[in-house]
Amino acid sequence: MQNVGRELIDHWIKVAKDRAAKQATLHYAREKKGAGHARLLWEFLNPEVDNLDASARRFRVNRSMREVEASADVLVERLSKPKRPS
Fold first, then answer.
1. String of DSSP letters for 10-30
2. Is residue 60 part of a domain?
3. Is pTM beyond 0.85 here?
4. Cβ atoms < 10 Å from Cβ of 60
5. CA separation for the pair 29, 56 (Å, rounded)
6. For 24-60, what is each residue's pLDDT tens digit?
7. Is the residue at 81 inside a domain?
8. Cα angle, residue 75 at apex, residues 74 and 76 outer, rounded to 5°
9. How many domains, the chain?
């Protein structure tokens, strides 16, 4: 699960850097429209998804769930105890 989280963050960073290189501000979804604004999240059936690169396509969501749970905390816990020096 930790690797999946890291991979998703890597894709998020790539999308943000790509948009910044195009002088666009990255937004959560479609709150702001027009030149200089780019969205992170896309609906599954949005036809524009076909034109996105592989990293950007990772951020597809159902709109209804985004509105139900606007935020979620992500807590990382160590699953094994650290080894003590001998």
1. HHHHHHHHHHHHTT-EEESSS
2. yes
3. no
4. 14
5. 12
6. 877 766 665 666 777 778 788 888 888 888 888 888 8
7. no
8. 120
9. 1
Q: Look up residue 13 and give its two tokens.
A: 């960073």
How many other CB atoms are found less than 10 A from the CB of residue 63?
14
Residue carrying the six token digits 């816990």 = 77
User: Using CA atoms, how far apart are residues 4 and 2, in angstroms rounded to an integer?
Assistant: 5
Do the domain assignments include residue 12?
A: yes
The backbone region for 68, taken as left when phi is positive above 0, alpha when psi lies in -120 to 50, beta otherwise, is: alpha
Specify the pairing of strand 42-43 against strand 60-61: parallel
- Domain for residue 86, yes or no? no
Q: Which domain holds residue 45?
A: 2-68
Exposed (0-12), middle (13-18) or buried (19+): which is 49, by Cβ within 10 Å?
middle
What would you report as the CA-atom Rg of the chain, rounded to the nearest whole angstrom? 17
- Amino acid code (one letter) for 15: V
